[in-house]
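Next comes the chain:
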Amino acid sequence: MSDLVIAAPDTVTIPVAGGGLFPVRRVYCIGRNYAAHAVEMGHDPDKEPPFFFQKNPDNLDASGEFPYPSHTSDVHHEAEVAVMLKSGGTNIPVARALDHVFGYALSLDMTRRDLQGEAKKMGRPWEIGKAFERSAPVGPIHRVEEVGHLSEGKMTFTVNGELRQEGDLNQMIWKVPEMISYLSEYFELKPGDVILSGTPAGVNAVVTGDIMVLEVEGLGSMTVKVV
């Protein structure tokens, strides 16, 4: 018999390629992790240590649709690769960080840019621009045993067939092992944690009806429709 006074929330899960479901605990997102994107957002990448913000576990959505959110007229795409952890800890050495990775997935960090901009001007947190419902479309997770660890690989993102973003995973300022190690200095990482690893330059607005396609070498492609 349960002592819960209300029904427990559903566990958020993401499909794994080949079968199975990955349960999500937390979602960490690194900001401005590609130099060209940092510049287009008005920052100097050579002067900035890593920083992170969070989305909510149920922001991750594998449905293939992105509902255009309310209270905004400027929703931007940010093409990313998500890193899924199978284990964790604190103060993880960079040299051992990849031991904790279960797999990788394609993902988008959809952003209400106008609301994020207002929050920045007032020195407020970004959640209203970043952590709204279904703001992180995600594809199936590919196990490390199948795809290896991705330190390089071409990334392209199109909207209605038009190239918007292009880069390579080797252009990350902070690499995956460094992100894991840095986060573990400030948080206790655990199985089910997800890290969105940043986006190349070219972020821009989408509208209802747009077809977004993200492709990363080694991880295939993901198609998401704005509805």
